[in-house]
Amino acid sequence: MASIFQGIGAATSISSSASFDTMKLQFSSPRSISGKKANCVVMRSGGAKMDSGSSRNGGRADQLVTNAVAAKADTPAASTASKPGHELLLFEALREGLEEEMERDARVCVMGEDVGHYGGSYKVTRGLAEKYGDLRVLDTPIAENSFTGMGIGAAMTGLRPIIEGMNMGFLLLAFNQISNNCGMLHYTSGGQFKIPVVIRGPGGVGRQLGAEHSQRLESYFQSIPGIQMVACSTPYNAKGLMKAAIRSDNPVILFEHVLLYNLKERIPDEEYVLNLEEAEMVRPGEHVTILTYSRMRYHVMQAAKTLVNKGYDPEVIDIRSLKPFDLYTIGNSIKKTHRVLIVEECMRTGGIGASLTAAITENFHDYLDAPIMCLSSQDVPTPYAGTLEEWTVVQPPQIVAAVEQLCR
Amino acid sequence: MVCIWAGDGIVVKGQAYGISSIRVDGNDALAIYNAVRNARQIAINEQRPILIEAMTYRVSHHSTSDDSTKYRSTDEIEHWKTMHSPVTRFLKWLERKGWWSDSEEAKLHVEAKKEVKQAIDEAEREEMPPLGDMFTDVYDELPSNLMEQEISLRETIQRHPNDFPKNMPI
């Protein structure tokens, strides 16, 4: 796994572009962020070390590009320049990433309910069974525990399966497989077996799907040792994270959101893979750091518009990597703004926000001017009544109010 | 039709658990009545469970987000809807016995429709569930964390009444 290291004084060319990687380096301090991580070099572009003259021209096919979307298209050096790319929806971006990886490596396969003949209940695997065959894109019976176990066994013996849960909540039926086999077998076998699976599926609160189909499994899975968790939120990072997850030799859980599948964006034509442990700078700012992921990113950006009109300058970071957290990016932001607001869809107790609050308090306590605020859903099953459901998800006005309170 | 079982359905599994089992035509109202009546008698008198496997066919889509014509033919659906509908079969049996007629059927339809429409109208006039309903029944009584969260939510709604659904009982 490409680990996160803390950057120390990597010589930077401070270009005029709005590239956010250079901005990160501007603010990195030589002092180690936490006692454990020290004296190492930032691995940004999925393995390629960041050196001072790093060019960001998108010419070569395997040039790894980060943050191409975060940078505005009109800044010359940062974007992938010449080609404008192509527009697609988030589920198509997932499919593109999946297809490219299946093309590249014959061991990559897909399994899940209705992924083959039906093309996937959210169309992520549409057309793949026709192209790669019924065994490589395998329709499974409605037996999550069984087919997750099957996928793990397949991974142990050489394949690289992507296991799709039709809804993240269904994966609770496979919790034993995910925790004990997926997460632990590499360890308990002394490294003899690796489990390069990707477990993916939609979760989160949708539109009146009911309590059991509106779950945020990232909070339940986060304690499982041995797995990595990432959450995609845009077509760009969906494709990049899908590819990175497939290439990783560790089990990765990729969290998608039911309501984000039809987001449209222009993504590069060139191949790119994102770093699994990296957070995404959505909007740089000065006054407050807002940490969020998945659908809440959009509620935050909506609130950000209101905040800007009110004269605030929020810095919005999509943490993307839910396990482990990208404390480097987060830390640099906190050192700049000194105020943190976490906006999540998880429930208040034991969610990602709770863990993140603990991690930030432990590592950056001295830099905080105010207590960390965390906006989450209440500790209730998601109501079916549409109005109650709306009240249980964090809304933009609450985010605005929280920032105003933080910045008093 | 393709059978999804390699084995012989569910009824044989009862045997593995030591439970007397029976397979019934699920679209035959009389057969189901007889099977269940006998099974109930055995269960009460002999204090042991009975497994009834009722064979039938799902005519509708799996859910509102499913279009089943994508994986089965409309002819097949029509066939089961008409030839094997348990309601139609029972109806024809009643008619053959002289206990029911077309005119009575028509009248029943009209009455049932009226009843349903009234129920829908009444339900739509009902008030939406109040905010407190979000927190009740999670536990038998509200614990401290839920009390806090309810207070916090009420304060938020008070401060931003325009940003939440209106006409909702709080």
UniProtKB/TrEMBL annotation, chain A:
SMART domains linked to this entry: Transket_pyr (SM00861)
InterPro entries with a match to the protein in the record: THDP-binding (IPR029061), Transketo_C/PFOR_II (IPR009014), Transketolase-like_Pyr-bd (IPR005475), Transketolase_C (IPR033248)
Cofactor: thiamine diphosphate
Enzyme Commission numbers on file: 1.2.4.1
Cytoplasm among keywords: no
One of the record's GO molecular function terms: metal ion binding
Residue ranges constituting the Transketolase-like pyrimidine-binding domain according to the UniProt record: 88-263
Keywords, in A-Z order: Chloroplast, Metal-binding, Oxidoreductase, Plastid, Potassium, Pyruvate, Thiamine pyrophosphate, Transit peptide
Any one Pfam family match given in the protein's UniProt record, by short name: Transket_pyr
Catalytic activity: N(6)-[(R)-lipoyl]-L-lysyl-[protein] + pyruvate + H(+) = N(6)-[(R)-S(8)-acetyldihydrolipoyl]-L-lysyl-[protein] + CO2
Function: The pyruvate dehydrogenase complex catalyzes the overall conversion of pyruvate to acetyl-CoA and CO(2). It contains multiple copies of three enzymatic components: pyruvate dehydrogenase (E1), dihydrolipoamide acetyltransferase (E2) and lipoamide dehydrogenase (E3).
Protein's recorded name: pyruvate dehydrogenase (acetyl-transferring)
TrEMBL record, chain B:
SUPFAM superfamilies: Thiamin diphosphate-binding fold (THDP-binding)
Dehydrogenase E1 component domain location: 8-129
Gene Ontology molecular function terms on file: oxidoreductase activity, acting on the aldehyde or oxo group of donors, disulfide as acceptor
Gene Ontology biological process terms in this record: branched-chain amino acid catabolic process
Entry's transmembrane regions: none
Pfam families: E1_dh
Name recorded for this polypeptide: Dehydrogenase E1 component domain-containing protein
Source organism superkingdom: Eukaryota
Record flagged with keyword Transport: no
Annotated keywords: Oxidoreductase
Lineage, highest ranks first: Eukaryota, Viridiplantae, Streptophyta, Embryophyta, Tracheophyta
